[in-house]
């Protein structure tokens, strides 16, 4: 995307990773800014979308790529891991879609890409049953 001049808003929890990634996009011909965002926080996702609109005026593509894969056996009842998986892998995706959809509907254009793991197509290992 960068080599085609894309304008990209990077979003993640770890600012140091965002700072590290930004120059590679700019060096490849794109324009990039970042917004520290925890996808489990609906307000932060909405603020990131608002920031993207302020920076670039429109959003053409949203890529939902955040995910977590807890590794514990179901019988251990690690409900904190279950909650985190649901908050990131399900709610985080929905928060992103919900935040960007009104803008895309108003413009009558836009793409939402939800990245999933290969586990959707393969046998799940015993230690990742919840996933």
UniProtKB/TrEMBL annotation:
- Database matches in CDD domains: SDR_c
InterPro entries in UniProt: NAD(P)-bd_dom_sf (IPR036291), SDR_fam (IPR002347)
Please name one Pfam family that this protein belongs to.
Answer: adh_short
Which domain of life does the protein's organism represent? Bacteria
Gene3D superfamilies documented for this protein: NAD(P)-binding Rossmann-like Domain
Q: Does the keyword Translocase apply?
A: no
Q: Which UniProt keywords apply?
A: Oxidoreductase
Name any one GO molecular function.
Answer: oxidoreductase activity
Coiled coil ranges: none
Q: Which family does it belong to?
A: Belongs to the short-chain dehydrogenases/reductases (SDR) family.
Q: Quote the protein name from its UniProt record.
A: Short-chain dehydrogenase
Gene source species: Anaerosporomusa subterranea
């Amino acid at each position: 995307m960068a080599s085609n001049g894309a304008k990209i808003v990077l979003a993640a929890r770890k600012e140091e990773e965002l700072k590290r990634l930004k120059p590679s996009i700019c060096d490849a011909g794109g324009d990039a800014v970042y917004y520290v965002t925890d996808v489990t926080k609906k307000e932060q996702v909405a603020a990131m979308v608002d920031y993207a609109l302020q920076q670039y005026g429109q959003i053409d593509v949203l890529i939902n790529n955040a995910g977590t894969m807890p590794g514990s056996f179901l019988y251990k009842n690690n409900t904190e891991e279950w909650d985190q998986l649901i908050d990131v892998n399900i709610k985080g995706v929905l928060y992103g879609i919900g935040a960007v959809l009104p803008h895309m509907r108003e413009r009558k254009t836009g793409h939402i890409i939800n990245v999933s793991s290969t586990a959707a197509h393969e046998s799940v290992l015993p230690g990742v049953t919840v996933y």
